[in-house]
Fold each of these.
Amino acid sequence: MPQTQSKIFGISRHRLTTDGEGVTTLVAFTGCPLRCKYCLNKASWEPEKARRYTPEQLFEEVKIDQLYFLATHGGVTFGGGEPLLQVDFIKEFRALCGQQWQILAETSLNVPFGNVQALDAVLDGYIVDIKDFNPKIYLAYTGKEIDLALKNLEWILLHGDPKRVKVRVPHIPEFNTDGDVSKSVESLKAMGVTDIDEFHYIIR
């Protein structure tokens, strides 16, 4: 039976409270359904520049920081790209590391609903990147419709503790206004999101 493999373009260790609680290692997959105009990780669009890993190979590489993970309630945050496209890989990785590490996903949630259902019990939390609640702004910025992302977010909030979900809402130059961001924040609160990170993109 062939081993599960995924392409990973970055592994960043010793991140402190930026991608979840405690000390985390950020693992960035290639592959993304969005084409955001100011994408910070365009390397995720170029799979030829990534290295193939099996879950076992990744576990052997990141377990060097297990003591930090356990002492600080940290662990591994999968990002990218879009980690929720890597269902089998993440499930197999969880089986290797057990329940002691925190496993989070930085995600747009613009993925098939079945992927979210398959990984929800595996993940300890989500860092969700909702660019803007306005469908026209979201489409103009990402190249995709927002409906699927909102459906998945609603399901996650209804099927677990909403406190496990952080949603990031950016001020995007030339795409949304402060008023647009305020509307997005109010919509998220109405859905039951309690942890909202509002920030500004710095475009160079």
Amino acid sequence: MMRSAFSSLKQTAAFTGLLLLVLLAPWLAGQRFLPPREESYSSVAWRFGAYPYLEQQIFKETNAIDIAFLGSSHMWWGVNAPYVQAALSQHVGRPATVVTLGWEWPGFDAVYFIAKDLLQHRRLQVLVICDEQPIPYRRPQTMSHRWFRYGDDWADLTGLSLPLQAAYYSGAILGLPRNLLGLVRPNLPADLTATPYLNDKYHAANPATTMGSLGVCLPYQVGGCFVPFQPSTGVNPAATCIYSPATAASFKFTGPATTPLQFYFARKIMALAESYHVQVVFLHFPTDREIRSPLIHERECWPEILAGHPWLVGVPPAAMFQGLNDEDAFKCFSGPDHFSKNGQDFFTALITPSLLSAYDTSTHH
């Protein structure tokens, strides 16, 4: 006969009560027992993303942002924000503000909740994002227990299935002890001058000194050496394509279809942007497997499947890497799919004029 886990009915009742308290804690805490929302960012270490920089940009700075690049590692590694800011400043004849807010692990849910925090605190003209479903991503983003707080965000889940709502709620349970600790003892201000993890792992400059962009100085192959490289291919920004009926032949939409979870939050991003009169741009980043492709391989035709018709901008990889052998082309990448600092600078120079056009359009809304 199996021995009972509890020696008395009182112990059983006490354990059951404690379990119910834990399960109901996010609902019981509501908003009343949550610390200021910036605590959710300031408690996250640099190895999970530029969250200390995100906290500063979202909650401490107050000036308007002209262009913000938001997203996971493709966006974080892929765009040189200082270059775009310099070009935009010259274009508009005043000091412009451009930032990259980047982190590890993909998911349109992370983009939505972080963009919501940003737009509630700062005015924005153009929001640049990218495809956040590189694989069929069917679960909440890995760090959701940090930025999803049931008391703040429960209403954003109303269109999801009950199992998915339960997944976010379970994350809120995991995150609540840290939130309660932040209510009792606020986090110390983040040190934006020291990023040893990013310096050691990526050989990258401190993102706080590069407007949030991460210029990764790692070789394409593990064990190799990173070599600074400026491609000379003859390609110019005119090769960049903005999706339209006239340029549709330059794009190929390959699937797989966006999962219900990711599509739900992609639509919410567009609705959020529309409510704040923000122009959305989807940016396509070529992978190391596409360098000879004459077409831009995007998973979905975002301008057609999303209300609000975001811009879709990309460069045909074969045009971008024309004249380069594979060895030199791969110097633009730090491993599969992600740009190195070489590729970041090269790609940014090509797509910046199109981003300036998106900015001009946004000012006419």
Amino acid sequence: MTKLDNKNLDITQKIGQVVMPRIDFNDPESLVTARRLVEECAVGGFIIFNGTRDIVSKTTQELQEISKIPLLFGCDAERGLGQVVSDMTIFPFTMSLGAANNLDLVYNQSSFIAQEMRECGLNLIFAPIADVNSNPDNPIINIRSYGDEPGLVSRLCSAFIKGCQDNGILACAKHFPGHGRTGVDSHVDLPVQDTSLETLQCSDLIPFEKSIEAGVATIMTAHIAFPQIRDGNAVTISKGLVSDVLRDEMGFQGLVITDSLHMEGIIKLGDEQYLSQMALNAGCDIILDPRDPFTLIQNLCNTELDLCQLNQKVERIFSAKQKLIANTNSSDSNLKDRGIKLRKQIAIDSVCQIKGEALTSKKVCVFVLDVTDSEIVISKPFTDYLEQNAISLNKISISTGSDQNFITDDIPEDSAVISLVYTTIGAWKKQSYLPDNFKEILKKLESVSHGTALVSFGSPYITRDFNKFKSIICSFDILDVCQVAAADVLLGKLPAKGKLPVDIS
């Protein structure tokens, strides 16, 4: 890559560099818009949503060819590129790595993700999650975090960053200064935290400090307000937190990127031009995912901006682009197989057995409580595996919306009872909580006289109120490999290697 120089850029091109719109491959107009944004506005890059490997690779290559300035292509691939690109690899939720607590495993995972990203022409990953999940009722971080202990989160974040950046992908620690205390999904509303800077410094900020020491290229701001800290503004538009704390006090010299401007947590504070101007003045370098990028760039061009600050932002963007490895299309014929093995290893190494012993009964009643509203038969990997191991079972699926008054007396005396609970985390989803009827049913099931087991796939916090189950097992994802690994632990075929990385007492 030749040396980048912003001296010959006009004001539109400079402002274009600090804007990163989306490309959504589910939107047929998105690619046309992207070409125009490159040619007319010199945008600095794009955040990618959806698509397949072939179309993403073709698009990134085409846009790089028509852009006079190298582009950043970012994505939310904290669980692997398969989270964004349909035919690529997806791994169990991040808390699985916290339970396994193996730095090599984290490094290998992020190295693999980086290699798949490079095959698609992508060069910026919005990960790792540096949030310390201190709130068990957190609806949006939760199992996306490594855990609730700052030291553990710090070590694993550093390993993730190294794996990415050793393989030519810029990493991004998020969500500064920490989203782990919130009880509100910032996609839905603005969380307001009555937390002091001193409290953050003793916990939430530690993984960001260690990420900076590890050389992380970028940091993403959280759409959260901290009224007690400096100017009290939402972080994304807070000079006190971005410029004063992150830049001056913590010494971060890399790129600061806002979280998405599509999120209700920030939208409610003002229009896009106001928010972007405030974010840039606060110290952010890149405005991520604006809803109307053309209008935003035009309006910012007609706004009185500090040209010295704007030039510094473009210089930081160019510096980050300069670090990228030029070869973004490397190929590894064994990459897919390595991903399959790595995903299985993470699943096996992360299963936690909170209490209990192996299942001895060859006859079971399986109750399926699915909070995810999945369109598939979600428990099939688990129940099929039991049947393959000569377990005779009767399966009862419980609906979230129905009042299920089943008779526990009808459970045969020679049957064990297995309760499978499926939860997940995702923007706007609210699928990490147990509905009331699920809680009532689990209370009944944990009290039957038979052998009982509670197996949680997703948030481990749902097990807190059900300690009468004779066996409790936690995995952190609904993926097939996670269900089979948990079944192996329940059957006594594998030891539970994981250690719960959060407090559920």
